[in-house]
Amino acid sequence: MNSSYSIKTNSQGRKVLIVKGIVPIDQLKEVTEDDFDMIYVEDTGQSHYELSYQLQNMSPFHSLKCHLKPCFLASTLKNRILNLAPIVDGFADKADDKAMYERANEIIDSLALIDTFDISEVKRNNYIYFLKLCKYAISRGMHTFTISLEEAYAQGHTSLFIAEQKNFSSNMKDEFIYYNHVMLELGYAKRKEFLERIHVCPHCKESHLFYMEACPKCDSSLLKEEPVLHHFRCANISPESSYAYDGDLRCPKCHQFLRHIGVDYDRPSNVYTCQECNHTFLHTRMKVYCSSCKKTFRPSDLLAIDIYNYEFTSEGILALSSNDAMVAVSKDIWAGYSNFESFLSQIRLFSYSRIKNEVIYINRFKVNGPHVNNEIVMRIVSDLQKRYHYNNISYKGKYIFMATKAPSDMSDALWKQMEEEHEETLKIIDLKYTGVSLVEQDYLQQDENEKIDTFIKRISKFN
Known about the structure:
CATH superfamily of the largest domain: EIF_2_alpha
Oligomer: single chain
Strand order of the largest sheet: 1-2-3-4-5
Number of domains: 4
Largest sheet: 5 strands, mixed
CATH topology of the largest domain: Alpha-Beta Plaits
């Protein structure tokens, strides 16, 4: 057996994998998933980086053999795990610690009540990965959580992502926000309290931002700030440097010496001078530098995100403990159509992944007929999704909305193809549903340089 690990059975019959070094557990042919129930990592003098690598090999989310299993560390490692603490269940002085076994038993008993699915599914779909994080949280009794993109913003569900989100793509973070929206919609979670509104980078969705003053003319931050002096006698107002005269203050306009502030002059404000272009101004222009993606933006470009405390509902805990949540979420996320609010969230995701010179088109249809109800509208939406599986589709009342991405300078041939597809679809709907007709009302096109928030506001009024 490899000397970097051992497996021992405790007094309660639990099999403990004791890790003493870098162990690629999933690659060990002699160790199976059923050979151990929990993990204990000993202190062998490993550095933070070595410990991080150890824990990544035993990730409760990515390791096939360590999947969701309790993981404990030697107490002396507590100060070396830093942001990986959320995926560690506790600390103990030795491998046969009684308190550690009691906590491990609680987690193992909770996991016995939770349906799990093949961990390889994570590689195929981000939403299953998020569901897995929910199952992990519930098995640890973490029912209250905060949705945030800011590292270490709060304890709870978000903490699980601190150890993971370095590998998140920008789109994956957006999907996480949308997934949470679906959880609320399905009644699996509810808002507990509003915490704060934060602003994140519009490109990478990180919140590590630097705010800098800049010249409104050339955008340089190489600025000199100095007071402005107001000479009462002649009413001259200019920078203090212009009054400097052989160690004294002399008015550059009337050449009188200024002796007493409040009597001869005052300092009503400060003025800035750009050292690059010599432009003088009273108010700087702010710019924001993202330390993650190295891009610079205006404050108005930042994305505002409201931070709430959430908690799982009793229905959510039951659904997430079983695989009912996976089925329910699938109907909303994977089917391609959703309610109108979710549809707007998907439009935002749509925009983040579009390429240059590509814009979003929204077609609006109306379902007409004397006996049109919500059930008929839903059936038509489902039919449309089967025909336009590459589009996002939603409905609101008797109106159906369909979003697609296309070049901003769409060719006549592409327009003609789209119109022919729509005409054929309308005929099929008319034949299938007696007394019901689907009429294309109009369409909305995103301007090439239009911000997504502005476009979404237009869509919201488009009904």
